[in-house]
Structure prediction request, 343 residues.
Amino acid sequence: MRSRNVVRRLCVVLFIGTILLGLQGCSYLQHRGEDLLDMMDVGITWSTKPGFAAYYDLTPFVPIGVSYVDGHFIGVGGGQIGVMRHFQKNIGVVVWGQEEVGFGPGFDKNKPETVNFQRVGAIGVGQGLAEGRLPRPDYFPTCLHYIHLGYLGAVGNLRYLQMLDFMLGWTTLDICFDDGVKRGGAKRPAWGGKNLVGLSSPRPEPEPEPEPIPIPVPKPKPKPKPAPKDTEPEVKREHPLEPTVKAHTVAKRVAIDAHPAAPAKPTMLVTHGLDPAPVPATPAEPPAKSTGPRVYIVKKGDGLMKIARERLGDLRKWKEIAKLNHLVPPYIIKVGEELLLPK
Prediction:
């Protein structure tokens, strides 16, 4: 009877365990394997440039020594196994120290947030708390051992909190907040970085707001350069009534030239009782030839210089034409307009 109760209880435990494993999926076992590799760093270091390491830290409160190595590592380190990049920069004087450790391809030694950076020693931990820089859960508390002379060295670290995280991880507790965090990446586990119980992946980060799509603004077309102006001056009227006055003056002069004055008749001297003696009449002077300006009607394509060259035989006389017709700059003339030409 007792054996039957034991079997029943064992079946219940196995049934509940099967349900829990089913709820977690394959990632559950994967995270347990990652926690197993997180418990220690053991391997060989080498570098292409000479380095030095003689450093020891008993938990985070007794750091002693100094180390600086920038090279490679083979073994188990940083939750990974194999050959990988490795960086260490540590200094400790018992009560104060500072540690920087990096394993894998994702860290940048010039960016403390991508490596395992922490203040150690009694004074160092207090300084870190004052700065708001808490020790990271993946390397706190830890017993570090580094030795490197020239081009070759060794690493032997025990990570106590990760050991406890491995054991509690089978109950779905994740006290180091590292389930689902990629090992060797630029992002390091942080306190409260994910849910402590039940979930095996980090909390989703808020999605960044999409960047506004720039609207292409059409470039303004360059303004066409104005065509070079003709060097020939153009004419501009001084007053809108001036063409009418000019036309009237020209018509009057044309009429005078067309009807010259008639010759004067001889006069007779009349006397009472006396024979009139003929008085020779003063001969009429021949009509004087017209010395006034000529009239030219503007045609299409005409300009003052062209008219002066074709009608006066000298293009330099365009100024005389402009002066005679009371034209001022810019000397604009129109088709059909009558211009006076100098003799």
User: Anything to note?
Assistant: The chain is about 25% helix and 25% strand. The radius of gyration is 57 Å. The beta strands are 40-58, 62-77, 80-93, 97-103, 116-120, 142-159, 294-297, 338-341.
